[in-house]
Specification:
311 residues; seven-stranded parallel sheet; 9 helices; 15 strands; elongated
Length: 311
């Protein structure tokens, strides 16, 4: 088996996967290609490291409908490794392509490296309590969570090959009659550089004001734990962080009254600096924190906000 291929319906994620793909290319001495549905991204994908870009051209607007075409292409190319962006659609497609390729499938791979003709991958288990290391034989299909890698740096003028495959046959067994997009409120916290996160240590909704003032002083976005969003409905659901919510990686993350259950920590573990404020010195959040303040958040947070305001 030979050839490393990347696919995501999101070109930003595809460029993130190119970072992992370039490492595999160097270790395995194999060409690196990208399969895309967006012909307009072909040049930038080549600039970011792809040796070849294959554009799937078809009339169907649903990315998951191209699973059969990608599966056939992967078999034809004798693909050794296929990295797929770990979106909901990507995971659905990856499973179907793995069947076509008769390949092993690893989901949510956190790290990937070549190891004696196979791949060694790691992924989180038990809500982030453990890391599973697996040895995967080739061919292999891996899904990788969005933002797990930085985007590959483009090199203007880099040479590569682009080709187009016309896709005319689609699975007609499922049709979509109506689409109701989720109405999101506020910014996407997964791209925030600074985050102030509130937990159940906040006594009432009106007290969110002290967290908002701190966030304003430091130019941060407000986030929360699952309980604040789903049980209390104090903040929109897209603002809760955790293994079933958003996974963030800001430069600075400050928690206010967050106990730090493992499901929440799984969503913040890639933050560069974690600061925890809580009155319970035994709260699990302090085990994950770089800096911790044990104290009454109603006293500590206003003092911190005032100190930042003096700068």
């Amino acid at each position: 088996m030979q050839g490393i291929w990347i696919y995501s319906e999101d070109s930003t994620i595809a460029k993130q996967l190119l970072t992992a793909g370039l490492n595999l290319k160097e270790a395995m001495n194999q060409p690196l290609g990208v399969i895309t549905l967006d012909a307009g991204q072909a040049k930038s994908l080549i600039d970011s490291g792809a040796d070849k870009v294959v554009v799937l051209k078809g009339e169907n607007n649903w990315p998951e409908s191209y699973a059969e075409a990608i599966g056939k292409f992967a078999v034809q190319e004798e693909t050794g490794v296929l990295l797929v962006g770990g979106t909901l659609r990507g995971k659905d497609l990856a499973a179907k392509v793995a069947v076509s390729l008769d390949a092993a499938l690893v989901t949510d791979a956190q790290s990937i490296k070549a190891a004696n003709g196979s791949l060694e991958t790691t992924r989180l288990m038990y809500g982030g309590l453990a890391v599973c290391t697996e040895q995967v034989s080739l061919p292999a299909v891996l899904t990788v969570p969005p933002s797990n890698f930085e985007e590959a740096k483009p090199v203007e003028g880099r040479k590569g090959e682009t080709s187009t495959i016309d896709v005319s046959e689609f699975d007609q067994r499922i049709s979509v009659n109506e689409v109701c997009p989720i109405v999101r409120q506020g910014v996407d916290i997964t791209t925030a550089g600074k985050i102030v996160c509130v937990g159940r240590g906040i006594s009432q909704k009106e007290d969110l004001k002290i967290a908002e003032e701190l966030a304003q002083a430091m130019g941060a976005e407000i986030a929360c734990t699952r309980g604040i969003a789903e049980d209390y409905h104090w903040l929109p659901e897209e603002r809760y962080i955790g293994i079933s919510g958003q996974k963030v990686k800001p430069e600075v993350y400050i928690s206010i009254g967050v106990s730090g259950q493992v499901q929440h920590v799984a969503g913040i573990r890639d933050s560069k600096i974690i600061v925890a404020i809580d009155s319970n010195e035994k709260a699990p959040i302090f085990e994950a924190a770089d800096y911790g303040i044990v104290g009454d958040l109603y006293e500590v947070v206003p003092m911190l906000t005032a100190a930042l305001g003096k700068k």
